[in-house]
Design goal:
Helix content is 45%, strand content 17%. With 333 residues, the protein is an alpha/beta fold. The N terminus is likely disordered. The structure holds zinc ion (ZN). Zinc ion binds next to loops. The site of zinc ion (ZN) has 4 residues, from loops.
């Protein structure tokens, strides 16, 4: 994968530096006295340490493998429906991860029908607001299961994959992203209790959309992107220029087979909460997933390569060309 080859490249540069250093060192030892050699040795050791720090710190790229580890951790917590203990543990896991990577964390708590709902929002950077969102709650019952519709959904893909992509982005997004925008990584609760016990969909994201202090330049929602057989189409209700921008990046990265620039489904998801207020919003979803809302939406269905592709597209977008100061693209809807 892209990130691994870059990391290997950085390690290779470090090794080349070590070899170069020892060769220079051998030449000088013959020509100069002991004291001078010692001074030189200290300089070269310093140079080597500096070079290796530069190698390891400069190229932190999205890792699908690390994202997959987040999916695993979330699945180990168990099904995470709104209001459950496991849901509260997921809130802690997300908050701790964001804090570890230097994000300012806010938990938006409120009650819906007497049930506690918690969005977690990590903020970093300055400039126009960009929201990257995913829901972390899971469906309370597997109501699409072919046999048993009483059990809850583990949600490796539906609830896990989008959350994992955002958590890995929290680790890798650097100043190229946060110097040109204020980025909010929004983890929505209560997306997936829709049509159960009178609940609507997207309760958490609706709360965030209507209480936003600043209108975002755009919102991108990531949901169900971890399927091994990954095919992501334009979603009908999404802001077209934003989808086009994302799919063009995917094309440049060589992911055209997986990001197919054709419309397929119209889906109500967390991006809808922002669209209804006239904000620019796009959904990245692979809705061709046979295990959707069944007992079988489990870790074994999730591919690190699929998470990698979505992470690469988002990282490239956010760390890419400076964002227009108006925050609105020509022809936006
Ligand atoms: Zn769902």
């Amino acid at each position: 994968m892209m990130s691994f080859s870059r990391e290997q490249d950085a390690e290779f540069r470090c090794l080349s530096t070590i070899q170069g250093v020892s060769e220079q060192r051998r030449g000088r030892v013959l020509a100069e006295g002991h004291a001078q050699t010692e001074a030189l040795r200290l300089i070269l050791v310093g140079l080597f340490v500096f070079t290796c720090v530069a190698c390891s710190g400069g190229e932190r790229r999205f890792s699908g493998r690390r994202a997959l580890a987040h999916v695993k951790a979330l699945c180990e917590i168990g099904p995470r429906p709104v209001g459950s203990k496991a849901n509260a543990r997921a809130v802690e896991y997300i908050s701790r991860t964001l804090e570890r990577h230097g994000w300012q964390v806010e938990v938006q708590s409120f009650a819906y029908s007497g049930v506690p709902v918690r969005n977690v929002v990590g903020t970093k950077g300055q400039g126009p607001v960009i929201i990257i969102g995913a829901h972390f709650d899971t469906r309370p019952v597997a109501d699409k299961d072919p046999a048993d519709r009483s059990l809850p959904v583990v949600g490796a893909n539906d609830g896990g994959s989008g959350t994992a992509v955002l958590l890995e982005l929290a680790r890798v997004l650097d100043k190229r992203a946060t110097d040109q925008a204020q980025i909010k990584l929004a983890f929505f609760d209560a997306e997936d209790r829709g049509e159960l016990g009178g609940w609507p969909w997207c309760v958490g994201s609706e709360h965030m959309a209507k209480t936003l202090a600043n209108r975002p330049a755009y919102v991108i929602v990531v949901d169900m992107v971890g399927d091994d057989d990954q095919r992501i189409y334009y979603e009908w209700s999404s802001t077209l220029w934003l989808s086009e921008k994302l799919w063009q990046i995917a094309d440049r990265l060589g992911y055209r087979q997986h990001f197919i620039p054709e419309h397929r489904y119209s889906i109500l998801d967390d991006h809808s909460s922002f669209l209804q207020w006239g904000m620019n919003a796009a959904l990245i979803i692979d809705f061709d997933y046979p295990y959707w809302h069944t007992r079988y939406d489990t870790l074994d269905k999730i591919s690190a390569d699929s998470l990698q592709r979505v992470g690469d597209v988002l990282e490239t977008l956010l760390e890419g060309e400076p964002f227009s100061s108006s925050g609105v693209e020509p022809g936006s809807n």
